[in-house]
Design brief:
Layout lengths: L34 H32 L17 E7 L6 E8 L14 H14 L3 E10 L1 E3 H18 L3 E10 L1 H6 L4 E4 L4 E3 L11 H7 L26 H36 L23 E2 L1 H7 L4 E2 L2 H12 L5 E7 L3 H9 L24 E3 L3
Parallel strand pairs: 2-3, 2-10, 3-5, 5-6, 5-7, 6-9
Antiparallel strand pairs: 1-10, 4-11, 7-8
């Protein structure tokens, strides 16, 4: 083909280039598993706490041994009892303090909670702390209890009376929703009692409760076999037929009840009279500062019945109607102070309490199932100052 000078000239085609090679993205680096590291850190922390606790215990034992507190010569004894921490409930920037002690639930000297300290031991320890602290000028006892064991109630009552006599610090009772039977037994030892007008109180009496299940045993076909050294050795046994129970046994049990009931009335009369005499002696110009004196017919209402706070005021079983704030005001008035700090002593639970559960022998650590209703933990053969609807 012939190219003429006038023909258009086309540039040569560009050289051929291969397509670019696209490299795949780099694979992500494998993630480091840190679970074992967290587990190892937790183990190291627990080991450090255990080591620190052992060293601290060894130091305390050594110091105690140097003071001659251990009689075995090896420094292995340790102090028992409630470990209490002081906590501030209301800080009014004051040098004076009022200790608040709470009595809640059924009063017992047993260790149902597994902490190793009963109600009696805890309240006694709290009163001892309040007596030793010079800044504590008075104590408020908050009671919300249906009562409980006779002996436990009596021990707490005596501890309160001894605290007031030895420390000269007043104890004011602030009743909650319920302060009946043993709850009132303890309250009667206080210098002053403040109750809400709707508080259920009273129930002055004694109860011993049991079950006779002989009829059920006969239906099932179970016959008891009892060998006893005396006629009354199986007293209060529930496996005997009613016609097998001696008449004298009824009289003996009733005599025990009547004796304890008489003790209850004596405690109320003595406690309320002593409080009224002291209040009347130190009262100001206001008649309300003298408190209430027991009515002449108060024993007519001491038949186990419960009364309201308003009725209790009329009978002289309480001194004043009001709430906890009113109890605080009355306490400051009796102690001669103003704007005090409110404190309480709470039990301290540390790692040693938790670990000690695994070292206890002879005790079963039960698992509780909470069904929303807690039945009273009553022990067989004990008498109770207890209001039990």
């Amino acid at each position: 083909m012939e190219i003429t000078p006038d023909a258009p000239q086309f540039p040569p085609p560009p050289p051929f280039s291969p397509p670019p090679v696209i490299a795949p993205p780099p694979a992500p680096a494998p993630r480091k598993r840190r679970g074992w590291m967290i587990f190892a850190i937790i183990l190291l922390v627990l080991l450090g706490l255990s080591l620190f606790g052992n060293v601290a215990q060894l130091v305390l034992q050594t110091l105690s041994f140097g003071r001659g507190l251990h009689a075995d010569g090896f420094g292995t004894a340790r102090e028992v009892g409630p470990k209490l921490d002081e906590c501030i409930l209301e800080n009014n920037k004051s040098q004076n303090k009022i200790a608040v002690i709470t009595l809640d639930g059924i009063i017992t000297d047993s260790h149902f909670d597994g902490t190793g300290n009963s109600d009696v031991e805890v309240i006694k320890a709290q009163l001892d702390r309040a007596a030793d602290d010079q800044r504590v000028k008075a104590v408020i006892l908050k009671v919300d209890s249906p009562g409980g064991e006779v002996l436990a109630s009596d021990e707490i009552y005596k501890a309160i009376r001894a605290f007031e006599e030895d420390s000269k610090k007043p104890v004011v009772c602030s009743m909650g929703s319920l302060a009946a039977s043993g709850g009132y037994y303890i309250s009667s030892g206080c210098r002053w009692i403040v109750a809400n007008e709707l508080t259920i109180t009273g129930s002055i009496g004694v109860i011993m409760h049991g079950w006779n299940y002989r009829g059920l045993m006969d239906k099932v076909g179970i016959a008891p076999m009892t060998f006893k050294s005396g006629k009354f050795k199986d007293m209060l046994s529930g496996e005997r037929a009613t016609n097998e129970i001696p008449v004298e046994e009824h009289a003996m049990v009733q005599s025990l009840i009547d004796e304890t009931y008489g003790k209850f009335k004596d405690v109320v009369a003595d406690g309320r009279s002593a409080a009224h005499d002291l209040n009347k002696k130190n009262a100001g110009k206001e008649a309300a500062d003298k408190g209430q004196e027991l009515a002449d017919d108060w024993e007519d209402f001491a038949d186990g019945r419960v009364v309201s706070g308003s009725q209790a005021l009329g009978l002289g079983l309480v001194d004043e109607l009001g709430d906890f704030d009113d109890a605080v005001d009355r306490t400051e008035k009796l102690a001669g102070i103003k704007d005090s700090n409110l404190i309480e002593y709470r039990e301290r639970y540390d790692l040693s309490n938790f670990l000690s559960m695994f070292g206890e022998s002879g005790k079963a650590h039960d698992i509780k199932l909470d069904l929303g209703v807690e039945a009273p933990k009553l022990r067989t053969g004990l008498m109770y100052f207890l209001y039990q609807p």
